[in-house]
């Protein structure tokens, strides 16, 4: 009888992990059980066995329409409006880099690429959604490629900045993604990663009720320490971690808590009841306390390519 090898941790290659809980699709209710485990060697949290890459589309049922209408409306938006949303990201990147060649991986509705292009950047994007790639190319005149990063076959050393806004937690192998980013970036390139922070205390308290585990779409949940190790393996050195506590996360946590503990389900973000408003207000006190600290549930990591890769496993 064939013996199945345990899945190796993508970060450290470790073969031992402990089960945290069996996750389910809380957002869309698509059937399936998704075991969430923690690597006993490095602490990386991931789903194993991973849903196959072919099943990817099945777990993203609503995204197409929302993204398409947002992207189609981009040119009608004023730059002021875009600047309010995306200006802080652009300003922060400008601290590190003059406008140059930028790649956004998993560009979604394309708004960040469009905004950076208006700001004088030479932008490119890659996204798995073919429809969005076509639209961004045709309507916004942006160089976009369809598929995973590895499918795009960019030349060696061409990018000065690479950004991933809420993307790394979705990829099949973050290690391979970062290795590929290393190959296609210039010396001193800046890598910007926005993702959730699994070191937030609420992750431990809420388990499957923590919105940010987002089974089965978030295949990985990182801490800043995990990310620093992952990046160092490809020669990127973390210069800064900026922590955030989005209100949306808190609203969703409350929605999931209510659903699992009280058996009541409603859309807390778009149609909150009076009780929801009171609860969210109360929880916001906690949010204010931890906002900006390393206990916040979201983080943006800025890393510079400045050393020889120390290699992975
Ligand atoms: Zn590990």
What does this structure look like?
The protein contains 10 helices and 11 strands. The strands form 2 sheets. Strands 6-5-4-7-8-11-10 form a 7-stranded mixed beta sheet, sandwiched between helices. It has a 4-stranded antiparallel beta sheet with strand order 1-2-3-9, with no helix packed on it. The longest helix is centred in the first third of the chain and has 18 residues, at 79-96. Helix 9 crosses helix 10 (274-290). 35% of the residues lie in helices and 22% in strands. The chain is globular, with a radius of gyration of 20 Å. The model has no long low-confidence stretch (mean pLDDT 91). The chain folds into 2 domains: 56-238 and 301-305, Vaccinia Virus protein VP39 (Rossmann fold); 246-290, no CATH class. Zinc ion (ZN) binds at residues 9, 11-12, 14, 39, 41-42, 44.
């Amino acid at each position: 009888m064939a013996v199945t090898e345990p899945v190796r941790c993508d970060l450290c290659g470790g073969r031992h992990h402990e089960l945290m809980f069996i996750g389910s699709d809380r957002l869309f209710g698509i059937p399936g059980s998704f075991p969430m485990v923690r690597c006993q060697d490095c602490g990386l949290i991931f789903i194993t066995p991973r849903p196959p890459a072919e099943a990817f589309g099945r777990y993203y049922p609503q995204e197409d329409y929302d993204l398409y209408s947002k992207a189609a409306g981009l040119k009608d938006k004023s730059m002021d409006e875009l600047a309010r949303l995306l200006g802080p990201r652009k300003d922060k990147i400008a601290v590190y880099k003059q406008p140059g060649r930028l790649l956004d991986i998993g560009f979604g509705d394309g708004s960040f690429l469009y905004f950076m292009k208006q700001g004088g950047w030479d932008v490119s994007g890659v996204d798995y959604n073919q429809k969005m790639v076509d639209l961004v190319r045709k309507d916004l005149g942006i160089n976009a490629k369809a598929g995973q990063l590895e499918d795009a076959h960019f030349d060696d050393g061409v990018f000065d900045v690479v950004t991933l806004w809420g993307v790394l937690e979705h990829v099949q192998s973050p290690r391979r993604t970062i290795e590929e980013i290393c190959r296609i970036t210039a010396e001193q390139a800046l890598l910007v990663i926005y993702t959730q922070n699994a070191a937030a205390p609420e992750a431990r308290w809420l388990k499957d009720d923590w919105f940010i585990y987002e089974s089965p779409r978030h295949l990985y949940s990182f801490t800043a320490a995990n990310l620093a190790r992952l990046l160092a393996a490809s020669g990127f050195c973390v210069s800064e971690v900026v922590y955030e506590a989005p209100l949306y996360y808190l609203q969703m946590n409350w929605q999931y808590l209510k659903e699992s503990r009280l058996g009541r389900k409603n859309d807390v973000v778009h149609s909150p009841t009076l009780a929801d408003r009171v609860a969210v207000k109360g929880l916001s006190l906690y949010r204010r306390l931890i906002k900006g600290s390393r206990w916040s549930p979201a983080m943006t990591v800025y890393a510079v390519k400045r050393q020889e890769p120390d290699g992975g496993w």
